[in-house]
Design goal:
The complex is a heterodimer of chains A (235) and B (437). With 235 residues, chain A is an alpha/beta fold. Chain A has a domain of 163 residues: Rossmann fold. Chain A has seven helices and ten strands. In chain A, the strands form two sheets. In chain A, strands 6-7-8-3-9-10 form a six-stranded mixed β-sheet, sandwiched between helices. Chain A has a four-stranded antiparallel β-sheet with strand order 2-1-4-5, covered by helices on one side. Chain B is elongated and about 105 Å long. In chain B, the strands form two sheets. A six-stranded mixed β-barrel of chain B has the order 3-4-9-6-8-7. In chain B, a hairpin with a 2-residue loop joins β7 and β8. The two termini of chain B are 30 Å apart. Chain B has two domains: 203 residues, no CATH class; 207 residues, no CATH class. The chains are: A alpha/beta (235), B alpha+beta (437). At the A-B interface, α2 and α3 of A face α1, α10, α11 and α16 of B.
Chain lengths: 235, 437
């Protein structure tokens, strides 16, 4: 079997939370997953299954209690807050259920934001943003504010923003959760197109038909992977 | 940098009223600093100017009425104060003087035809004019020849001339005091009355004066002043009301004052005179001024503190309100210090705007005070005229240091009070912040 380049790798990750009463919640109990480059994974599970915790860890918003998380060839599981910010900034793209655009910024400013935190305010960066806006079909609305856009349009802006730093992994948290099925379908087509262009996408969802659009589906239960279907598409 | 500021500005414009109120707090603080310091400087300038009018090189020795039980001379005549012999003693024994001027003053009724007024009748020498920074409007002052032959001449103050000789040239006219007539030979220019300085120097008004040669006053009126009151008569005997000496060298003023004190002490068992040293007053006034300024800055500082607390309050509300935005920015790669600089820049924009507006209003201090005074003056003339002259004539003086300091302090207040809300924003857990509704 040819060697597969890994976009991200989770090795025996545990995550414990200590609640106020001193009770320890074991949110993740030894999770190991490989995400080859170009993968499109759907993570499913009931609430409390640990899928949100896993996504937060994958998104470098949190650190695991033990285990390793290798992203872009380096172990990021025990980095400092500043270093994690840097990793998010360079290697990750986020798409949220509620779009999470910044209300007082325009469409183009929202797309630019990750580059701004990279310290990249060059002219090329600006052009790159405009190209992305065009790609997601919002060329005409660059100076609109988020509240002037429909939900689908806002999610398109969010996708453009997630792409602007050319991330290794795109993390999507219920990307169609707030959208009607027609608009959700458009967004899914966009994600599929991105995956076809080589982007690694990890998506959390609880809708089976959305999950079915991915190459493979991981099911979580009680902080563990219940089912790990190796993908045939990449083998 | 510019981008941080423009983002800050944008989110401030989103809450115009809130931002305006925060700015107002700082604005009031900065304006308070500038105005209060300007008033303080004005008061100080006035006091120092008055002391300078007395002459920093001068020492003023005045007769004062001692307490009743310590009086010399029996009967109903009370004798006290400086003697002509004291004047001779000072002139011959104190080597550091460049000049010495004796003076005697009493209040008398002056008359010209039907015009009558109470004046300060001053017996003095030719140097009195220069020593008090008086200027002649017309005619001449007392000459040495007038003194020698005790001429019946007088020089009148501006108000005296206005009351006794309205709409006419007083020169050559005869002015009557008691039963004697004096030829008016000169008139002084009007001089702004000086306020009292401390306890030892009472207010001086030179405008309602009549100056005659000292020798004339002695010959015509004498040393004794007898006043009749219901049923009793009282007499006071004073030879000289005041001796003003000028010390040649400013450095020697303090020593000379000590010498005069010792000299007079030997001949006056009772303390019936007071020595005023304007130079000491000047130094005291400067020390007092510094303390006064310190107090004003303290008060203004409190105003700025309140403004700062206002800013902090508003920024804390803003941070809470924008928790989700903070979460988004953190997820997109903002470091904690990026969040700190974002919120800090907002507070700095707020406080610097307040500071600039405050400086602008600070510049309006003079017109505002002069305008208010004239408005109050025209509506309630009694209120203004009942105020002491220092306040009636107070001119605020803008101090550059206060403007710069006030602006810098306002920005400093912004940083200081913005730091905590900004830190709080930066320390939020990004996951919690993203979940915030």
């Amino acid at each position: 079997m040819a060697e597969i380049k890994m976009a991200a790798q989770v090795i025996d990750v545990h995550k414990d939370y200590v609640l106020k009463g001193g009770i320890t919640v074991r949110a993740l109990r030894g999770v190991s997953i490989d995400f080859p480059e170009g993968d499109f994974v759907a993570i499913m599970g009931t609430s409390g299954s640990g899928k949100s915790t896993l996504l937060n860890l994958l998104g470098c918003l949190d650190r695991c209690s033990s285990g390793k998380y290798i992203l872009a060839g380096q172990d990021v599981s025990q980095l400092s807050d500043d270093e994690l910010s840097e990793i998010r900034c360079r290697y990750l793209g986020f798409i949220f259920q509620s779009y999470n655009l910044i209300a007082q910024l325009t469409v183009v400013e929202n797309i630019e934001l990750p580059l701004y935190y990279q310290g990249n305010t060059s002219k090329e960066a600006k052009e790159h943003c405009l190209a992305l806006a065009e790609m997601v079909g919002l060329k005409e609305r660059l100076d609109h504010r988020p509240f002037q856009l429909s939900g689908g349009q806002q999610q398109r802006v969010a996708i453009a923003r997630a792409l602007v730093n050319n991330p290794r992994v795109i993390l999507a948290d219920e990307p169609t959760g707030n959208l009607d099925s027609a608009t959700g379908e458009e967004i899914m087509q966009l994600l599929e197109a991105l995956n076809a262009a080589g982007k690694t996408i990890i998506m959390v969802t609880h809708e089976p038909d959305i999950a079915a659009r991915a190459h493979r589906t991981l099911r979580m239960r009680d902080g563990k992977l219940e089912q790990h279907t190796p993908t045939g598409a990449l083998a | 940098m510019w981008q941080i500021l423009s983002v800050g500005l944008k989110s401030l414009l989103l809450h115009k009223l809130r931002s305006a109120l925060a700015i107002l707090g700082i604005l009031i603080g900065v304006t308070a600093v500038i105005w209060l310091v300007a008033m303080g400087e004005g008061v100080s300038y006035q006091a120092q100017q008055q002391i300078k009018d007395l002459g920093a090189n001068n020492i003023i020795i005045r007769s004062t009425k001692p307490p009743a039980e310590a009086l010399r001379g029996g009967g109903f005549i009370i004798a006290y104060g400086l003697l002509r012999a004291d004047f001779e003693r000072i002139v011959t024994n104190v080597p550091t003087l460049s000049q010495a001027v004796p003076m005697r003053e009493i209040t008398r009724e002056a008359r010209y035809l039907d015009n009558v007024t109470d004046v300060r009748l001053v017996g003095c020498t030719s140097k009195y004019l220069e020593m008090n920074n008086l200027r002649l409007a017309r005619g001449r002052f007392i000459s040495d020849k007038d003194l020698e032959s005790a001429e019946n001449v007088c020089i009148i103050g501006a108000d005296t001339a206005r009351i006794l000789f309205p709409y006419q040239d007083p020169i050559g006219q005869f002015l009557q005091v008691e039963d004697a007539f004096y030829v008016v030979v000169g008139q002084t220019e009007s001089k702004t009355p000086s306020a009292g300085i401390g306890g030892s120097m009472s207010a001086q008004d030179f405008n309602l004066d009549v100056y005659i040669p000292l020798a004339t006053l002695r010959a015509r009126i004498g040393d004794m002043v007898v006043t009749s009151r219901a049923g009793s008569r009282e007499g006071e005997q004073v030879e000289l009301s005041q001796i003003t000496v000028t010390v040649r060298d400013l450095e020697q003023v303090d020593e000379t004052a000590d010498i005069i004190r010792a000299l007079l002490g030997r001949f006056h068992p009772v303390q019936d005179y007071a020595i005023v040293v304007p130079k000491e007053l000047l130094q005291q006034a400067q020390v007092l001024q510094m303390m006064f300024n310190l107090l004003l800055v303290l008060i203004a500082g409190i105003a700025l503190l309140v403004g700062g607390i206002g800013i902090m309050n508003i920024m804390l509300a803003t941070v809470t309100e924008r928790t989700r935005e903070i979460g988004i920015r953190r997820a997109l790669g903002a470091k904690q210090r990026d969040i700190v600089s974002q919120f800090l820049s907002e507070t700095i924009v707020l406080s610097a705007t307040g500071g600039l507006l405050g400086v602008f209003i600070g510049f309006l201090c003079r017109p505002a005070i002069v305008g208010t005074r004239s408005l109050v003056g025209s509506l309630f003339p009694d209120v203004i005229s009942s105020l002491p002259p220092n306040i009636q004539q107070l001119e605020p003086r803008l101090a550059w240091w206060s403007i710069i300091a006030a602006f810098l302090i306002s920005v400093g207040v912004g940083v200081l009070f913005g730091l905590y809300p900004a830190q709080r924003a930066a320390r939020m857990d990004p996951i919690e912040a993203l979940r915030h509704e």
